[in-house]
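User: Hi! I'm working on a homework problem where we have to compare a predicted structure to a textbook description. Could you give me the structure for the chain below?
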Amino acid sequence: MPQYKVPLRDIRFLMNEVFDYPSHYKSMPNGVDATPDLVEHILKECARYCEQVLAPLNQKGDQDGCELKDGKVTTPRGFKDAYDQYVAGGWQGLTHPADFGGQGLPISLGMVRAEMMGTANWSFSMYPGLSLGAMNTLQVHASEEQKRTYLTPLTEGRWMGTMCLTEPQCGTDLGQVATKAIPQADGSYKLTGTKIFISAGDHDLTENIVHIVLARLPDAPKGTRGISLFLVPKYLPDGNGGVGPFNHVVCSALEHKMGIRGSATAVLNFEESTGFLVGTVNKGLECMFTFMNTARIGTAVQGVAAAELSYQGALAYSKDRRSMRSLSGAKEPNQIADALHHHADVRRMLLTQKAIAEGGRAMLYSAAMLADKMMVGILKNDEKERLYWDDKLGFFTPILKGFLTELGFECANLGMQVFGGHGYIQEHGMEQIVRDARIATLYEGTTGIQALDLLGRKVLLLTRGKAVREFTATIMKLCTRNATHRDMYPFIWTLGKLCAQWNWLTTRLMLSARKDRDMIGSAAVDYLMYAGYVSLAYNWALMAEKSFEKLEKGGAETPEFYRAKIQTAEFYFERLLPRAQAHAEGMLSPSKSVMQLPIDHFTFD
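Assistant: Happy to help. Predicted structure tokens:
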């Protein structure tokens, strides 16, 4: 397994120079305490924990897996001790209100923490990650009594939370949810049903697990309009902050998975389990979207994590492994052969990983600032402000989740490729990254689902292209302020053309869909990938802009660091961004070639 080293210099560059987090934090009521000194301390301590505690458990967790025996789930060796250290460090409550035992810091700091932890050990990070989503949902939609009862132990890390959506007969199509919720005289409900693929559904890390469950009342309307949201603890609270009787939430099986084997993915049976309504009857899906958006952005982090970890492993190997001579002549004549990194094709793979890992990180950190502003609306109890920033973030969510997980998986495969045959062998750990990364394009909505959410819902249905127009206007501001900057010209010229093309493509699809109803479905993934490549280009242009500025005026980093950023941006624009044009051409093709072949003719016996 690659020895993970947190890229603190790159993280500081984004936070302090590209996006100016210090000024951003000063403008927020919950950001006053996030001083540069405190943030630096948090970064260093989190890096230490991830490098020294979590990373060494990554490969062990994959080998041990989780075990279900006599109704109890055991996590891999070392996970319980690592989680106890996580709780002792106060990491779970980093961004949650002090009223419930948290530190009340901006949610973007939680994103940075999540990236470090996820890169060090994705399987482990899923346990507290799912809990954070449950906490966010309760903070927005739960009653005051529910918050008092559940948010403090969740924030302290004594309890964990999950998200229970999927059932054997339905995944994405939640209108088919069949779990029943029967009202009781005391205002509670009895839930009966089976949920599958529940990450962190059962484990030995905490004394209690709080499940956020979608279910249906007896008189509920059919489809998604009849789904309600419930809070169902594994053990009922005892009224004193501890746990009481077992609530008949039974883990009947653990899934045997391709990857993330250290994460317990459970089949849960609710056997007349006591539950409590969260939010309004039949409005559960709306409430759950708070959790789902949190989880989707969290999954986008996995794309960057896979790219970064695989890149670090491949880069180290390329320096040590020797094979043949460079086509342009021997680079290390005193050695038996040249190191791999002297070969142009290996350089192509390494730079692809670097461009995606560092560019994807920038995309996440930019979006995290929107999440900060949304959280301010929650803290101010200003629903209008919360919804405004939630809508802004909602446009980027499917791009982040769909695009970054697809490219993260690509980078994981490239890392194996750099290793050659050794990459296929377990002891090097590169094949584990591929297996772990594969799930990221599937859970929390497949890439196709994210694409339909972006094009069909966010762009065409809800905003009729306005979301794209607003984002491209932001990109054009970058182009305008660099109009006379000679070195930036290649970047801004390309971005300007892409902005015009993106709006034109959106209009073309909108018009074509009136006659060809399958057009949106057949074009959606190409549209999402196109949006991702343009978004990544914008973030690389931002980094190049700042690097040119720091080279001229001086910055916190060395000139070599800034030049490396500029050269990586050049690689991205010249070698990876052209992929967007293939997606542009593909998305405008009529759906006929996709839909015309009869299903009986897909194969012939």
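For your comparison, note the following. The chain is about 55% helix and 10% strand. The mean pLDDT is 96. Good luck with the assignment!
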